């Protein structure tokens, strides 16, 4: 087992915010005014990274305008605003966070995560689902139906589906429609494995007949700028790995380097990638050693007989998306007490079956949660302790996001220059109007 897993050096995150994302962001407030339920989709492997803080602000403002978030109202003395009625007699205003691709994360962390989120975000209904699991779709459909029944005088309920690119919005709606509509239903929305396929708001899609529920599919929206520093660089690589951002914006070796690190964290005893390496291979934190072993195992060679590590790197990322996620999801919660014996002069990071209970170990769940445990207590790490560790990770992430927003870390230099130029033009226009007004007066 690896005793030391170094964090890889990652490239600065690129900016990917096409025009259709900007258009939808501007349309969102008007769309929310006609919405009863917001379904926000996130990737279960990245439950924090796949939060879009621009969407978050718009949704919180929407709930505040309906009187559901009193702390968001503009005047504290005035108290909560009275709920606005979007139409059709409905007073519903619910937000459901769907953690999609539930089958790609370890089951032992689902309930602790749900409790940790409920303690911090009581206004959010957290639901885990996989679009290919009929039971998950049935549970979600029943949840929407029960919400619709809380407003019996409404003639229909409108649902808006939002989220980052490639988290499964269109696929989920197709599944909900096939479950909620009696008889055979044609596939209403096109889907793609590439991010940015949905570029416009869909027409209203009926997903239940009794009660009547309609839904809109929306384009996946990336943040205009992922931020500055190491944490933002990590966020960009995570999104590229789940194909939430264009993979071509990254060097594939950077993706492999981070993926190797994360798989080692998820299971340092028997990482998922050992299934595709030559028999007898040991866990490694060296990306070059790993790619050479993988290329040799797959028979990938260039002219002259050298191993083709570039092709192996691309294959590894695709393998993880196809089946590696499922293997890593089966990583056990307890990793045992096997820690490498550090012999005199031996480099840290070797592997052995000896016991060394004093060495701390890094553990993780999904790609967003990571914490340190003592080898001696790793066997007895209960659900309560896991919930506490996850809660600490959530708190740290939210604090980091707030600090970055306050410091302007979510705005790129290009955006700052654009805003400054727009302000300059606005001042010129105001001066011109004032000059014309004086002459006409």
Notes on the protein architecture:
By secondary structure, the protein is of the alpha/beta class. Helices cover about 40% and strands about 10% of the residues. The chain is built from eleven helices and eight strands. It has helices at about 20-30, 55-65, 110-120, 135-150, 170-180, 230-240, 250-265, 285-300, 310-330, 385-405, 415-440, and strands spanning about 35-45, 95-100, 125-130, 155-165, 205-210, 215, 360-365, 370-375. The strands form two sheets. Strands 3-2-1-4-6-5 form a six-stranded mixed β-sheet, with helices on both faces. Strand 2, helix 3 and strand 3 (about 125-130) form a beta-alpha-beta unit. The chain is globular and about 85 Å long. The model is unreliable at about 70-85 and about 335-360 (pLDDT under 50).
């Amino acid at each position: 087992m690896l005793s030391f897993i170094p964090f890889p050096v990652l490239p600065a995150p690129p900016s990917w915010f096409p025009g259709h994302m900007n258009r939808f962001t501007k349309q969102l407030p008007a769309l929310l005014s006609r919405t009863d339920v917001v379904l926000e989709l996130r990737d279960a492997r990245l439950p924090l990274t796949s939060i879009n803080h621009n969407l978050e602000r718009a949704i919180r403002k929407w709930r505040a305008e309906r009187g559901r978030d009193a702390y968001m109202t503009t005047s504290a003395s005035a108290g909560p605003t009275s709920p606005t009625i979007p139409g059709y007699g409905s007073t519903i205003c619910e937000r459901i966070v769907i953690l999609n691709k539930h089958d790609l994360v370890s089951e032992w962390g689902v309930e602790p995560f749900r409790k940790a989120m409920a303690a911090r975000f009581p206004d959010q209904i957290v639901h885990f689902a996989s679009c290919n699991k009929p039971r998950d779709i049935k549970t979600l459909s029943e949840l929407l139906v029960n919400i619709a029944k809380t407003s019996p005088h409404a003639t229909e309920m409108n649902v808006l589906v939002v989220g980052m690119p490639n988290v499964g919005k269109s696929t989920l709606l197709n599944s909900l429609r096939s479950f909620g509509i009696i008889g055979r239903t044609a596939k209403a929305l096109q889907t793609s494995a590439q991010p940015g396929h949905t570029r416009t708001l869909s027409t209203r899609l009926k997903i239940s007949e009794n009660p009547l529920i309609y839904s809109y599919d929306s384009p996946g929206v990336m943040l205009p700028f992922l931020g500055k520093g190491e944490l933002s660089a990590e966020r960009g690589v995570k999104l590229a790995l789940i194909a939430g951002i264009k993979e071509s914006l990254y060097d594939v070796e950077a993706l492999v380097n981070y993926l190797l690190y994360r798989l080692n964290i998820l299971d340092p005893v028997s990482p998922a990638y050992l299934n595709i390496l030559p028999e007898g291979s040991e866990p490694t934190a060296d990306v070059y050693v790993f790619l050479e072993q993988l290329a040799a195992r797959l028979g990938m060679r260039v002219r002259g007989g050298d191993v083709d590590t570039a092709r192996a790197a691309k294959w590894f990322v695709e393998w993880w998306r196809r089946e590696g996620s499922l293997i890593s999801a089966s990583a056990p919660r307890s990793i045992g007490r096997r820690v490498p014996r550090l012999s005199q002069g031996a480099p840290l990071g070797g592997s052995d079956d000896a016991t060394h209970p004093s060495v701390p170990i890094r553990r993780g769940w999904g790609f967003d949660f990571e914490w340190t445990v003592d080898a001696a207590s790793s066997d007895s790490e209960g659900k309560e302790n896991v919930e506490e560790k996850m809660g600490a990770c959530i708190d740290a992430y939210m604090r980091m996001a707030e600090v970055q927003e306050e410091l302007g870390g979510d705005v790129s230099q290009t955006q700052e220059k654009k805003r400054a130029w727009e302000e300059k033009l606005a001042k010129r226009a105001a001066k011109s109007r004032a000059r014309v007004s004086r002459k006409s007066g």
